[in-house]
Structures are given as structure tokens and as C-alpha cells.
Amino acid sequence: MDFSFLDQLWLARIPLLKGLGVSVSISLLSIVLGTALGVFVGLALVYGFRPVKWIVRGYTDFIRGTPVLVLVLASYYVLSTIGIDLGPFQAGVLALAVFCSSHVGDLVRGALQSIPKGQTEAAKAIGLTFAQTFTYVLGPQALRQALPAWVNTAAEMVKASTLLSIIGVSELLLRTQELISRTFMSLEFYFFAGFLYFVINYGIERFGRYVERKTAVPS
């Protein structure tokens, strides 16, 4: 039997592609859902009533101070004890989305607070509603400021997706470990998996630069 790495890689192409697809799906869902929730978290931190600010601030501080692995295990095991039965995939997406939202919320808060108050006052003076003010005045400016840090957060979600193997999600790392247990080619397959994760994060970085160019203020 030929145990050369290329031969084994070709034989394992289907499991690896399936694992890569699961990793991409989990990362994409957690980033999109976490970003959407994080925007509302950031708005609540800046414009919410004081009790709302306290609650949301407690949420962000608690989630940011909790290891991702603990959130993953809690989403899968703890929720089931109160009657919320989630599959490994759903529990993993929930945990990563919640973690992502706490970071994005703080990014949005910082970006909005850095915008001069005169911008909001000018928008009110011409009769814009809060939704219109955020959409046309505050949102675009906050996006430009928060985008670089958001790219880093999105990349962290891709890395954190590797933790989901502990609850049985057949993502790229778990598929890689299964192949290593059969072929004993740990260095080669781990290196190849690392390369695939690099490709995903590189794609996120390029997407962030594309959005940054599109939202840049013309000089």
C-alpha cells in the first residue's frame, strides 16, 4: 500500500472537502448572525436607556470574558437540560455567533462614540429620523472605522470553529484528525489543514479591503 501524502490526500479529498464546507458554513453563519446582533448591541450601548445599557454591558462583559470553548459546551450540553435541544452544528453556530456579537457590539459602540455629536444634531435639524440618521449619516462613518477590527474578529471566528470538533461537528479539523489516526501523517495533514484555514482567512481579509475601498471617502 502506498502511503505517500499525495496519494492519501487524493483518497481523502471527499471527507476533507466536506469538512471544509462545514467549516466555511459555520464561520459564515456565525459571522453574519454575530455581526447583525452586534450592531443592535452597539446601538443599545450608545443610545439605549440606562437600564438597557447596564443589561447589555453586562452581556458583553460576560461573553467576552468567557472562553469560547465554555460557550460551545454550554450551548450544546447546558441548553439541553432546560429543554432546548440543539444539534452540534446549531449549538456551534449559536456559541460562535453570541461570542462574535459581543466583540462586534463593542466595535460598533466605539465607532459610534467617536463620531462628533454635531453629525447627529445636524441630522435632527434637517428632520431625519433616528433610522435615517443611522443609515445615511452614522452607519457609513462607523463602518469605515470599525471595518479593520471587524476583519480580525471574523478571522477569529474561523479559528474558533476548530473548537466545535469537541462536540462532534464534522468540520475540517475533525476530518483531519480522523485521517491522521488512519494514516499517521500528522505533520502533513495538519500543515494542509492550516493552509486551508489560511485561504479562508485570506478571503475574509480581501473582502474587508474590498468593502473598505467601496466605503472610502473620495479625496
- Return Rg in Å: 21 Å
Compressed to H and E, one letter per element, the order equals: HHHHHHHHH
**Structure summary, number of beta strands:** 0
Termini separation (Å)? 63 Å
Major sheet attributes: none
Classify the beta-strand content into a percent band.
under 5%
What is the tally of helical segments? 9
Helix content: over 70%
- What class do helices, strands and sheet pairing give? mainly alpha
Mean pLDDT: 89
> How does the overall form come out from the CA principal axes?
flat
Quaternary state reads single chain
Low-confidence residue ranges: none
Question: In short, what is this structure?
Answer:
82% of the residues lie in helices and 0% in strands.
Structure description:
This protein is flat. The chain is an all-alpha fold. The termini are far apart. Helices cover 82% and strands 0% of the residues. Helix 2 (13-47) crosses helix 5 (88-113), helix 3 (50-64) crosses helix 5 and helix 4 (68-81) packs across helix 5 (88-113). The mean pLDDT is 89. It has helices spanning 5-11, 13-47, 50-64, 68-81, 88-113, 117-125, 130-160, 172-183, 186-215. It contains nine helices and no strands.
